Amino acid sequence: MTLPIGATAPDFEAETTEGKIKFHDWIGNSWALLFSHPKDFTPVCTTELGALAKLKPEFDKRGVKLMGLSVDPVDRHAKWSEDIMETQGAAPNYPMIGDTDFNVSKLYGMLPASTSGDPLTRTPADNQTVRNVFIIGPDKKIKLVLVYPMTTGRNFQEILRVIDSLQLTAKHRVATPADWSQGDDVIIAGSVSNDEAKTIYPQGWKEPKPYIRIVPQPR
């Protein structure tokens, strides 16, 4: 089972393309995006890794660290990186875990606890459940889980939009409505009483129903 939102992201030690890391220490006081791939040298994932490399400045701006994962070893990640640069115009500029013992994939519910053997003998179909996105906050809690099929490339603009929403909620105790984007009106969170809301929003709010309190996006 995939880890639920609100659970503490399991800590782990792993070999990556940027050396050995301890996950919680690596996150520090930042946000983190952990995203997994079923196998190196797969077509959809090749496009994703290149797209994310190009978007890294946007994640940096938001204080979000990026970490990739595949069950293949780190030396294969380095060779795959050359293909990604050649075909996508950008190579991974963030660490990639070589999860050869399946430890992280098991901890995060992406592979069964019984999984074992040589990762190089496994096919992408064997690892098709290793196609997840986890957004993790500075408190090391899981804020979002997305699971994609192998044939659908991830929409990283949507992931950036979710991060913007999560960070806005963390700072201002507001929620974002359907199809929200930066600059749109937001909703006062249900955890904020009307009395408290009056001190935060002395100008008031729009209230089409008592449970929908709409205000401009806080800055």
Polypeptide structure, described:
With 219 residues, the chain is an alpha+beta fold. The protein has 2 domains: 7-153, Glutaredoxin (3-Layer(aba) Sandwich), CATH 3.40.30.10; 172-215, Antioxidant, Horf6, Chain A, domain 2 (2-Layer Sandwich), CATH 3.30.1020. It is built from 6 helices and 11 strands. The protein has helices at 23-27, 43-61, 74-88, 103-107, 156-172, 194-200, and strands at 13-16, 19-22, 31-37, 64-70, 96-98, 132-136, 142-147, 174-175, 186-188, 206-209, 212-215. Strand 6 (132-136) and strand 7 (142-147) form a beta hairpin. The longest helix is centred in the N-terminal third of the chain and has 19 residues, at 43-61. It is elongated, with a radius of gyration of 19 Å. The protein starts with 12 loop residues before the first strand and ends with a strand. Belongs to the peroxiredoxin family. Prx6 subfamily. Belongs to the peroxiredoxin family. AhpC/Prx1 subfamily. Pfam families: 1-cysPrx_C, AhpC-TSA. One of its GO terms (molecular function) is thioredoxin-dependent peroxiredoxin activity.
